[in-house]
Batch of 3 targets.
Target 1
Amino acid sequence: MENPDSELLPPPPPEIPPDVIPEQVQPEKKPDLNNNSSKPKRVLMRRPGIGSRGRKMTFITNHFKVGFGNTSGFFYHYCISLFYEDGRPVEGKGIGRKVLDKVYETYESELGGRDFAYDGEKSLFTVGALPRNNMEFTVVLDAVVSKRTAENGGSGSPNGGDVKRMRRSSQSKTMKVDISFAAKIPVQAIGNALRGQDTENSQEALRVLDIILRQIAAKQGCLLVRQSFFHDSPRNFTDLGGGVLGCRGFHSSFRATQGGLSLNMDGSTTTIVQPGPLVDFIIANQNCRDPYQVDWAKAKRTIKNLRIKITTTNQEYKITGLSESKCQDQMFSMRSRNSKDENGEAENIELSVYDYFVNTQGRKLQYSADLPCINVGKPKRPTYFPIEFCTLVSLQRYTKALTVIQRSSLVEKSRQKPEEKINILTETMKSNNYAADPMLRSCGVTIQSQFTKIDGRILVAPKLKAGGNDELFTRNGRWNFNNKKYAEPAKIGLWAVVNFSARCEVRKLCLDLARIGETKGISFSPPKAVFEELAQFRRAPPPIRVDKMFDQLMSEFPTEPPRFILCLLPDRKNCDLYGPWKKKNLSEFGIFNQCMCPMRVNDQYLNNLLLKINAKLGGLNSLLAGEVARNIPVVSSKPTMIFGMDVSHGSPGHADVPSIAAVVSSRHWPLISRYRASVRSQSPKVEMIDGLFKPGPGNDDSGIVRELLLDFYTSSGKQKPSQIIIFRDGVSESQFNQVLNKELDQIIEACKFLDENWSPQFTLIVAQKNHHTKFFLDGSADNVPPGTVIDTQVCHPSNNDFYMCAHAGMIGTTRPTHYHVLFDEIGFSADDLQELVHSLSYVYQRSNNAISIVAPVRYAHLAASQVSLFTKFDEMSETSSSHGGVTGVGPPPVVELPKLHKNVCCSMFFC
């Protein structure tokens, strides 16, 4: 088609001479706010110096110094491939170690007599090379029972076919093992790591040392959970109820530190299923009287993939399911020697699993006849056993979500006082006898048996202010409000009480709360109404109970809802009313509320309750003297905003539940004690926060950061923050680069999107609690004092990190928080930053003691946890993934969280 405007076009360009290569003009690109590929990648900052403030003190730590002699050799990395005789790859965990042990036992001379460390999957390491780069071995493994054993059985056969076939199939397995060279890692790379030169080689070399520790533990028959090892010894087990045991073990890993290479040894705990008869576990798990009361649909989900041993044959299998019929009714076909067809061949006969074992095998069955059979085969080729022949193998992890009671019991029974922990770790070091391991010896590794002595400092506690500029006196990281008012007490005018069938004297409770509140400066009017739950709704589903209570409530408040509701719940530990109640108040009506369980109420309990109530309603209980006087170094001199960031994931067994990302931010600068939160849902099990910056059409950004920046601006006298300090929780060292280059980029882009000319300076700090370094007072049974800071010897050789115990450890052994400063444009000195972190552990409004991690991080965790209860995500995941017949590619879309009501979105509702 001709162009109607062709006469308006310019003449064609002149012809290009054949010897001229034209330059290609690149099309002008519009800036892509999400494309960071052209930006230089940020790297972790180096330590600018160490701190000097505070009282110097010597501690001991659970790091054991490691000598390293062989620095000239190489670790050789080999890839392992396992195949069955027919060429099919071997699947299933656990079998690899048995096969490799057999290879070493059979072909030690062909392997040059070299010891190896195997990771249990596809990697094997040696010190020095094997004789050849590619080696293939064939081994015969006796009595291997894996997924393939069941495949040999006939359809429905309880023993995988008749006895003869069963015997033949379980006697042995022939396997092929391919070992091929992959890489060599210089042992010297560990020396580079100790000098702070973190390369891929140095990380790999340290990983090899850790795999050697795993190999040692595997040879001892331990359960391996990453770098934690658990022995099969009843003295390590503690009953948590419900067929679940807590299992004590130890963590052991090599760390590159300023003081050289060290072995970090610590206690560790996991949960395992109770070994023994399978039926006993199911009965305990469901808390029922006998197997005839069991919910078998629920039991099927619980026991799937657990390993059992059959008592009649001593063979191991993995549970794949249950039979559809009872043992006495579940039929299968088998060949009968006594019954032959017209051609003289054995005929297939139908008989029940019960008849097979009782009549054919001559086994006695006491209670299995009326119970389902255990299936260890495949759906189309089942292999059934009566349940009473099934015994659970020991040391199997229990990966389902624990109940509140089980979790509390695990925490309580895992606690160890400092002195007890030191004794246990000393004994563990002796019993491990790492010095005798041939592979560690061939590396030239020697490990000292004494705890390492290190230098630290005790920081002075920050000064706190109560109401009327009164000073709060701190002692051992704690303070009280005796005869003092809150720094900024709230006013409670229009309020009500709702009682979900909790037993208490509501009138006395209200009077006591008002009495104590008045002493703290909170003015309480009498509650306008008290609502008792109607008897006919007490057994209704929780959302219905909440709706009906609100129907009562709104009939009394037809024009204006109450500003505050005190909610009395019947169960403190596990109340399913909590989530629907919070959602109704915070999302739909914008009402501040406080839940409580009035079982053991005294003045101390009500004092703690009032701390939360005052903070939620906009008050402040205490303030740092430095923020009042505006003399906190760096932070008070320029408008400074503080972020706390965390992601909360679904509990074990709920892998498809969306994760909840929460960011809290400071407001009302120069204060650093007041915060608000912004919360979003995101894809399940994703740790990186993807909703910080979300540009849309026009000048719209629906991300988390924008609303927090605007709130800081309006609450801080229309000032933009020129400094932003970010505390990020819940990420491991392997994710530091993503936090530094992806999350920080999103925050910067959110700032630029608001104002292109605005460039605040950033400091980014990761706070870790999930580590294994502990500190002890040498020769004392007490925990280290609050304010303990360590930034030498056991810290990273070059990166900017430090440990802090801001709190007083009252129970068990204090766990320090490990702070990693990834990025610092603001330019903090080591002392100023450590004192700021220490101070931020004293601004947590929910308690009158210093906490173990900076308050913004704890608040982010609270906000994510509370908002995650707004919606029943288990119902969501069912509707989004298994209903409607939609077959889209990729995971189902994440359901958005209900928004917080405008009345409460800027508050500390999470307190």
Target 2
Amino acid sequence: MGLTKQYLRFAASAVFGVIGSQKANIAYVTLRGGEKGRYVAVAACEHVFIWDVRKAEKVLILKGNKQEVTYLCPSPDGIHLAVGYEDGSIRIFSLLGGESNVSFNGHKSAVTVIRYDELGARLVSGAKDTDVIVWDVINECGLYRLKGHKDAITQALFLKNRNLLVTSSKDTFVKWWDLDTQHCFKTMVGHRSEVWGMVLLNEEKRIVTGSADSELRAWDITYLQENKEEGEPEVKKPKALLDDRDDQEEELDENPAERILSCQKAGSVLRDGRDRVVTMTTDLKSRMLACHGTDAILEVFHVLSEAEVKRRLEKRMKKAKKRAKSLMSRDGKETAEELVERKLEDEIQRLTHIKASAKIRSVQRLGRNTSPTRIAQRLFVWRINHQSDYPINVIPLSFSNMQQDIWTPRDRTRLLRFFESGWVIQSHLEKSFCFFNRSTLQVIRTMACDYALCSLFVPGDRQIVIGTKSGKIQIFDLASGSLLETTDAHNGALWSICLCPDQRGIVTGGADKTVKFWQFELVKDKESGQSKRLTVSHTRTLQLDEDVLCVRYSPDQRLLAASLLDCTVKVFYADTLKFFLSLYGHKLPVLCMDISHDSALIATGSADRNVKIWGLDFGDCHRSLFAHDDSVMFLQFVPKTHLFFTAGKDKKIKQWDADKFEHVQTLEGHHREVWCLAVSPSGDYVVSSAHDKSLRLWERTREPIILEEEKEMAREAEYEESLAKGDEPVVPGETQGEAGLAGKKTIETVKAAERIMEALELYREETRKLEEHSAACSAAGRKLPPPTMSPILVAFGNISPSQYVLDVIRKVRSSELEESLLVLPFSYVPDLLSLFNEFIRGGLEVELVCRCLFFLLRIHFGQITSSQMLLTVIDDLRKNTISRVRQIRDILGFNIAGLQFLQREIENKEDVTFFADATDRFEEKKRKRKKRERAILTVA
């Protein structure tokens, strides 16, 4: 038997070159009790970066798994950060240690909005699957799912003083939900397009919505229950001409006597932008409103208080009276007084608009001082641009558009190169290129250039040659960062450049259907007069019939291969340029190719998603491999091997064996199309770049890859994924209403249910052994040796079978407990109920057991009540549960009363107040100190 070829695994090492992603918003966070407004959290592919905006440094990384981050929401206490992902999951990170211990799985698609309530005890999330889910953060479980919208959720807001929730969606509706009864009691249909943003103003008595037009609609909220308590008549809608949408609203709304609140349109505010609203936000006291669209304009509005509005109306009334008196004195006739009406413009005033240097992606405001005379509060604006890598912009909110860029913009990376030493990575960013240190992953140098399509390092790593979109060759000196020379090479785009194996020249291929050969020369620099600089001189030209997309020299310098736009690869003799071979078989143009180190094989990757391996001796196709699900963008051999890597638009990087035609490994991590990759000269590192604007470094480990095991693991992963994506279990007794279970079936819930079933099987087996042992002892009339315990129970410290079942249930995540019990077959429920009775009687995990018990009773109510065998068990559970819960409640009440007594004693003894909000007192002391300082200066 021959020896098995060994492959070594490449593992993800680092993600660098990215500041933030465009999919998610930004959020202020408080890091380790630091200063507010100093740290900002941004999404970076699957991770979350915490930036210190003063030092422009990355201070913390919240690491994700595989899915891209889509939404960020900090908790009210500033200690946690809720992160929503593209697969619908939500993870809550602790900003103290950067770890995540809580995760929620309920949505089937990307999370679009997350909001905490005022206390931070509940969390609401909305997603593209049109569902709204309310989560209990303290118990780490889902409360319920709210169904009713027909398109993606765009905003969700808790009301502070009422148990109400308001949500907006792309289905043009705004829905009000009563969280006590979990139903939608009002639907606002006054929008003609998608509702993209929503904020609450005036102590939650006004709601402002932004849609796909240039109009911000304001709605007055009247709480009918308050009016009834105060003895006011019910608020009725005034009779007016209504269009079809208003008629529809009248039909959808319930009887006014039964509604919790009523909404009446107060007017509209026109924005300067003509596109849809992207973000709407307010400050902490809802006195400032900021919104922006898909353009680069940020509009800021000032929300006046009721007293300020009254003062403005009084001033207008006085002016109207003066105007009437002047007219009467001049004409001698008595004129009627002008009517001063209250308009929406009197309450929401346009303050200013700020023009950013690029499109704005997200905006968030921080600050308590909302006086219009002191509006220099900072905003963080997340800018996007098709030519930039989303830098953070700090914009002082003032009438002067002062802007300060923290990071230099970066374009998408299409080219990657390793130095010959392998220690520095060069990355092209279309109109600039920069160098990263491989060990620190920090930028060493950035240089501006034209639109670059290809590049290579001159031997010695002192100069770099770049081919541009305009067909020019640019030579840069790496030490000084200066441009040495620009040469017109091709009439069209210069698509490919290759170094000659003798390292004395280069060959280029362009869109002008030519392949040109260039030789390195040293000429005297005219500026300095003494030093010499590098240049290239044209030696010969190869004319072809189609555009040249890629050129490659064979390492022995015998052959030259050129891929053409006609889907073929032409091979020529390098010395005479005579035609040698034509490699045809691809259905679409060949975008990339490479030749092995021994000049025996050439591998070509095409836009038809295939990779073909050819022999350079006769031009025969050894094998055609279906490599990617989209175009193959890049291909490169590992030095001194027949292994090669391919990158495709399907977001994957794959490693192949050109001898055995085997797929070795798939490197997954990028979230967009992978444009290029580079293999280090030693073959130990691979760096890749994708359209998600990130660079990823992959390192070769010492872990071997066994292909059969890899295939088996891939099949198992595919089976588990299909199992989790199967039909959702039907909840018995649950109707298809507006509310449902919060969780969803995942592979983790299925595995948790399997562990519970295995524990119950073990419990049954051990119980049977004990019964047989007691029967044998009774028959023998003496005590026999105990039966052998299960190795699992021995491994856990000789615990009882019932205790083992409780330990398995305790280890199930709180957010996955209901779904795991839902997957459990009913045949295991009687044993669980008997065990629950035993646990409650012994006072073991009463809260957890009661939660499981009530859920099982709710979903299996019909089968449990119809079973005669379970009547005694249910009756015992009723007695024991009520008595035990009352006992725990009394203990908790006694402890709370004792703590309150101790608090009062300490406050009376030391004259201090515990748990008081010191913010207002601090602000009051600050105001008094400034007032005292001004008085001293005045006296001086």
Target 3
Amino acid sequence: MASILDQYEEEYNRGAVRRPNQVGELIGPGFSDARLDADVPIFNKKKVNFKPQDPITHLVVANNFLVMAQSSNILLRLDLEHPDQPDEVELPRSVEDRIHKIFLDPTGRHLIISMNSQDNYYLSRQLKKPKPIVKLKGHLIECVGWNWQNANDNTTSAILFGTSRGLIFESELSSFEDRTFFQGNVEQYLKQLFTLQGKVTGLEFDRMPSGDMTVYKYYILATTPGRLYQFIGQVSQSSEPPMFLSLFQQYENGTEHPQFIELPGDFGYSELQLFFTKFRQPACKFAWMAGPGIYYGDINVSGSSPSSVLANTKLMSYGKNEETKTSKPLSMILTEFHVLVLYPDCVKAISNLNEELVYDDPYPDRVGRLVGICKDVLKGTIWTFSANTVFKYKITKEDRDVWQMYLEKNEFELAKEYCKDNPMHMDKVLTKQADYLFANGKYTESAALFALTQNSFEEIALKLIKLPKKDALKMFLEKKISALRPQDKAQMTMLVTWMIELFLNQLGELKEQGQDASAEFDNMQEEFRKFMNSNIKVKECVSINRSVVYDLIASHGDIENLVFFAVLMKDFERVIGHYIQHDNYKDALNILTKQSDMELFYKFSPLLMQYVPKETVEAWIKQGKQLDPKRLIPALVQYDHQKLKDQGSEAIKYLEFCIQKLEHKDQAIHNFLLSLYAKLQPQDLMRYLQQQGEDPETICYDVKYALRLCAEFNLKKACVHIYSLMGLYEEAVDMALCVDVELAKQQADKPDEDDKDMRKKLWLRIARHVVEEEKDIKRAMEFLHECDRLKIEDILPFFPDFVTIDHFKDAIITSLQEYNSHIDSLKQEMDEATQSAEEIRKEIQSFRNKYAFVKAEDKCSACGYPLMSRAFYLFPCGHKFHMDCLISEVLPSLQSSKKSQVEALQRKLAEGDSGPSHKTMSSSTGLKDMDVKTKLDELVASECILCGDFMIRCVDKLFIEEDEWSSVAAEWE
């Protein structure tokens, strides 16, 4: 339990924090500053529960590893993650020797001890006993420049030493036991690089970006009590140690002079600190504690200044109160936004943004005089100590008030960076930045920021309305629209309507000034359309209130934007109607083709077809199968082909596309195309009819309608074709004779080959026409060769009486010759038939006398039992079957009618055999039984079942019938 004094001290420390703006403040709607974080100080000090055996002289902490030196020259090493396991190391010393300084690298692995006797030691975390740095004997180490890039636990890599005599050394210390160089020494090498005027109080170096991949670029900062030096140069990656020798040689040789800053009034010592945002990343800030104050600034390694890496430097005084004048600062620590200065009796934190004192922590007398302060670079903790007490500082939200400091300096972007997690603070920054921009005439940028704040909408809007130009007001409204929630319907409607009104007013003013063809007008028009089209919330709002927007645009007489809005709302019917009303048919058709509602095609196509038929048909063709051609027929029929001949041809073009490409079979489409061919392009009618073919099942047009249409327009060839399709060959021939005899001959050959009488009749019609109408006897005689059914006697009645035999003498001779050859062929056929009949009679006689032997041991080919046991059949092929075996084999394959006949004949034979007096039956009864057997033989024994057609018919018969599967399966089991 803490003592009363300790409790008092903790309460006193809470009051040491400077807490600006203690009272809660209402910024605007939605934000209330509760100042919950103010109760927790930025620097929270806590006393470490530790009482040393001897007074503490030095203390360093790195990577949660603490090393403490006591006046008894005993080092206490402590892993703060395991504080219950301390490690004591005793230093070798003479009687009066004391520790001068100790240095711990950022990883907490390597420790260097400098003694007042100018002996120096190295102690790694693995070693239990310090080892002397032999080559540095006789030098008092004042500072060490650690290598921030080193990741090796067993070596320090290249480091720098600064001594009390102004010497700068480079060395590398190692804890390896099996070293190959400098046996027995911890230093790999030691090289003096440079000499400064006065003791070296601080050394820091870090790597810089380099464009050359073969070299590294470094900067080195070194301080004396009154000067800050800079050394910048390149180091080859392949160079042998010492690494920085070439860098310092350029200053030793006089080619370069070291940059330095000198401050007057030094008090014999100084201190140099760097700040790293993260370990092993480049340092971003520096601070140098000197006599007149703390010189601080940024580290700039971008190369903008080749001879310096220090930027934005300032000198901060220690303070103006009387207490600080009487005592000098002992040490300091640099954080991201503060410098902590250690005095013998207090610790003060000064902001490096505005140089104000933000924290003052006096220590009570019982603690004793403060000795030192240090910082754990990796963990961010800060430690102070006196001879008998150790304190630890924890930093909590160091950047909590940084935003306000940047805001006071009008550095708004930095202020936003440090208050982005606090909406109230962000609102303050945005408000002040917006006011700043407004005061400087940047109204548009100011309006965009005002829209992001929680300030009153009405107040800002009235402020912006007073401006002569409305761009800032539009920006404000647009930003507010984008920030509205989906449920804010009323606000959205109001703001969107206001924005549209502003745009229309600006466009109207430009038109009145005659600038409607200027770039400014085009940009304004583009901006308006982008506003209407790009924002989803705006599109939804204007879609719901489209009637209001229509009225608003119409009130300004802006037809162009009215059409644009209608297109945006996909109100294409209104747009197309507008263009048609103004006789702008091409634009109407262009809008029609860009939309996807096919009903609008059916509605507007009749009118468009009258004025832009070609373009309309092209639009239809582009739509392809999406359009129903039947519903476009009203648009196709509304034309006057006397005035608009092109329209008819375009209609034919579309119908041909439907038939040929889309393969429409609808009869109405084909009939309409047929009518257009008959009226406008009769030369293409026959081509269409021939493409349709002559099969009535595949023809798509109405044949009777086509015949009536062709007859109406006197298209005789088409009529001939249609008569032929209808099977009216006589009418086809009669019509063809009015056109061409050759066409009539083609029609005469179309009847079937079996209908010879019709073919003959048609040819006689043609012959009569040729003889009677054309008086061409010779041509009529040629028909005798073209039609084999025509004879000379068929066409002789058509000849006039005065015709001499000379006209058809050759035909008569040819006909007689054909008759003679026909008689000869008939004679030959009769002789061949007589000879064949004689041969058949001989074969029948030979079959009557044919016989075969049956042996007693012969067996039935079906059942395998002796053949002579009962009635049997003997076939010429040699196969033998019992009568009942043959019937049982043949019966399943017979038709049902024949099967019933066989069964009836078997019953009749059975009745005859079972009669009591069958031995004395009459001859008539025997003849009747013979007839029954003969009929039975014809049905079952007409052929051998093994080598006749019966076997071929049974080739697909199953080996095992379906009803036999169960019994067969049982047998196999």
